[in-house]
Design a protein that fits this description.
- By secondary structure, the protein is an alpha/beta fold.
- Helix content is about 35%, strand content about 15%.
- It has 13 helices and 13 strands.
- It has a seven-stranded parallel beta sheet with strand order 3-2-1-4-5-6-7.
- The protein is globular and about 60 Å long.
- It starts with a strand and ends with a helix.
Length: about 375
């Protein structure tokens, strides 16, 4: 069988990019279709057979943010040869509308239905769009929402990265057929769970409003315990101004440094609603309990009292109380690591490969 892959774009390394990298390791000779590859920011993809859209010629710095209205057309213009049997699409937006022959089976690994078109639409407009342009952007998003639903109709088989995303696919794309849930892959063996624990907790994530680092910082200001904030983003200056002396900002951390921090941390605090939350799995693989907001994909990862604590509201006082509750409970690093094995990369490969073979055997959906 001939397989192709597709992914929205390669600009920054995140959870979605780690998924498509895992897919590429499964099918290293598969061509990879994408809107664009920002080589300067993302780095080279040596050995990858990349097929970029015409948007590659328009890419300059942050320009990908203003190319939004062009994505549906660019997807249709990316034509996959008719001898490709199946395309596995890593998608959170419009790449699922890639141009395919009638016979080609499309399997969509969905990180989320397009957040800025559906459940986060108003938040996106408020946080990302200047006030004078907001009415125009709302009109654009309304039209793009209908286009996105139309493109979703071409998908033959859906894979969701969490049960929360599965439910959103069914709701927003009106999918009535079964939707597989396959969690993003974590190489559990590459993390260390044994060793001396430090005297600090971790927050890891992009420093943007929706990640709610402010909740973690204010909670630890009240506690007086050490918190290390790992990540970069436009909110860093404002967050530094509210942080006490017990809060340290590391900036971005490479993989090796992050693994060292997770292996030494007393726990991870995760105050945002996310589609899944791979860093929470990485913390468990490192023997560190997780204190997380009880929303989104976290219910697939953290069991209250077993893997850490779930907090009902994104408020500093509630998170501070949960951190103290975890501090008073003994969590065995080995048990936390065993819990993380539910999400090991070997299970991801097995599940995805089985779904692709099954989808090919069934052929195109009606």
């Amino acid at each position: 069988m001939r397989i192709a892959l597709a992914h929205e774009y390669f600009v920054a390394h995140g959870g979605a990019e780690r998924v498509v990298e895992a897919l590429h390791r499964m099918w290293p000779l598969a061509p990879v279709y994408t809107f664009f590859h920002d080589r300067h920011r993302y780095g080279p993809l040596e050995g990858w057979i990349l097929r970029t859209s015409y948007l590659q010629r328009l890419l300059l710095g942050e320009s990908h943010r203003v190319l939004l209205p062009l994505y549906p057309n660019a997807a249709r213009a990316l034509r996959v040869p008719p001898d490709i049997d199946a395309v596995v699409v890593s998608t959170s937006a419009f790449i699922k509308g890639i141009g395919l022959a009638d016979r080609t089976v499309e399997i969509a690994y969905c990180h989320s239905p397009t957040r800025y078109l559906f459940d986060w639409s108003e938040r996106y407009v408020h946080e990302e769009v200047p006030a004078p342009l907001q009415p125009v952007m709302r009109d654009i998003l309304t039209r793009l929402r209908e286009t996105d639903r139309k493109l979703a109709e071409r998908v033959d088989r859906w894979i969701a990265n969490s049960t929360a995303v599965r439910d959103r696919i069914a709701k927003y794309y009106e999918v009535s057929s079964p939707i597989d849930v396959v969690h993003p892959p974590t190489d559990v063996e590459s993390f260390r769970a044994e060793g001396e624990r430090g005297d600090f907790w971790l927050f890891v994530g992009r420093l943007s409003a929706y990640k709610r680092a402010d909740v973690a910082i204010r909670a630890f200001n009240d506690l007086g315990m050490r918190l290390m904030v790992v990540g970069e983003g436009r909110e860093r200056g404002a967050l530094e101004r509210i942080a006490g002396e017990n809060v340290a900002f590391t900036g971005r951390a490479d993989d090796a440094t992050l693994k060292d921090l997770l292996a030494a941390a007393r726990g991870l605090v995760f105050p945002s609603e996310d589609d899944f939350g791979m860093v929470c799995v990485e913390a468990l693989a490192s023997g560190a309990p997780v204190v997380a907001l009880a929303a989104g994909g976290i219910f697939d990862i953290v069991r209250d009292g077993e893997d850490g604590a779930l907090v009902e509201v994104p408020e500093p006082r509630a998170f501070a109380e949960a951190v103290l509750r975890v501090e008073r409970t003994r969590f065995e690093p080995k048990a936390l690591r065993d819990s993380a094995r539910r999400f090991d990369v070997s299970r991801f490969r097995e599940r995805v490969n089985g779904i692709v073979e099954e989808a090919l055997a069934q052929g195109r959906a009606s």
